[in-house]
Amino acid sequence: MSKAENNAPDIKDGFIYIDNNDEDDQFFKDHIDAMNRISATILADRENSTEENIHNPQPEDGNDTLNRSSYKRLDACYNLNDTPFATKIDLAADYQGSYIMYVSDQTFGSAGNIIRTDVLKEKKELWEIENEEADGWQNGWLVKRHEPSAFAVVQLGVGGIVSGIDIDLTGYNQCAPTTVSIIGHLRDSPGKWVRLLPQVFVDLDSHNFFETRNPNICSHIQVTMIPGSAITRLRVYGDVVPLFIPIDRTINLASNLYGSQVIQKPVNILRGEIPNIILDRAYSSHDGWICTRDKNSNNIPQYTTIKLATKGIIDRFVVDTKHFIGNAPQSIIIQGSMITDQNVNDSESVQWINLIDEDQIRHNIYPNMIHIISCIHSEPITHIRVRPIPDGGIQQLVAKGKVFLQNKLPQPATSSKRKREEKDKKGE
């Protein structure tokens, strides 16, 4: 048991506070050479960076936000939807562009497995169930035997502020670790690491959810397990904080890489733990966003609400139904709203307006096809919501537009219906 969980821990509001200035850290003593190499590599990458327009304030030594973190074990949560970070992006996921930067050992199972977001393989034979070191089905990261500890470093595709962690040990019983700890590298203070989780005991063959509090932006995550054993998946949920967002060109305002989030989803959405509707990948229908069949027209409309990466003015939408052959929607509704901090939690005060004209709403959405639909609203918005009619699947929804700048007035947009009326008048 770590010092943070022993010796009278500092507890407030259910969170256990941990000290990031503890010099008596056995892990750093055991792996000092490896940690020095990793930190040196990160520093070299930062020095060679060519990114411009980056503002990175440097926290001072002794800053409470740097030296103090807190966490809370969520024993009552059995799946992601039960947690307070269910709508957050998995910062360590492969869909974010994250990858394994360093691993101490991966004899039986690649460390790259812990950041995968595809469907888990199933054990079909009895010998596969009994022998967790069996070749051919390994779902997770599994190291060789007799290792006192093992660790892996994940470079996040886009940095962010961590608010929740899931240490998933599904499928591992005899190979499950006893304790796991996690530290994060501070993007704004190269070479400095902060504890997100001390050594915490984990339950085998299950999800282990933890809520964390540390306001610093992490660029790398290191997970350590004692003894060296196995982890199926590591989910690091939080808010994406990109180095910069282009303001002089059209971008996808609904991109997960810029910080967009799915904040509300229909009941029983398939594979809803992955925000597929805003992800730029389409290997199969498993990468899509599909609602269940609507057998009752009186059911609550199946809206998916998306928080845009930033306040912006949308020019057009791209609705992709690739791989959806017999289960694409017949048509679609897309609405938008300007949601402020004051009414973010008050759904009744939010006013939604149609972003596509009536002709487009009645327009058929075809299977396995990319549809480009103009946006008729010229004012800035912060959120959009989409509803398939009557139900069905969408591979991805793209919102092409520009970041809204306060000192630049938006130009009025003209709907297709108004364009036709103007054309008819000219014809007269």
From TrEMBL:
InterPro entries with a match to the protein in the record: Allantoicase, Allantoicase_dom, Galactose-bd-like_sf, Pumilio_RNA-bd_rpt
Transmembrane segments: none
Entry annotated with the keyword Zinc: no
Record GO terms (molecular function): allantoicase activity; RNA binding
SUPFAM superfamilies: Galactose-binding domain-like
Keywords from the named record: Repeat
Region (Disordered): 47-67, 408-428
GO biological-process terms attached to the record: allantoin catabolic process
Domain Allantoicase: 97-240, 284-403
Keyword GTP-binding among UniProt keywords: no
Biased composition (Basic and acidic residues): 419-428
Entries under Pfam families matching the protein: Allantoicase
Placement of Pumilio repeats on the sequence: 242-280
UniProt cross-references to PROSITE patterns, sorted A to Z: PUM
PANTHER family assigned: ALLANTOICASE, INACTIVE ALLANTOICASE-RELATED
Family listed: Belongs to the allantoicase family.
The name this protein goes by in its record: Allantoicase domain-containing protein
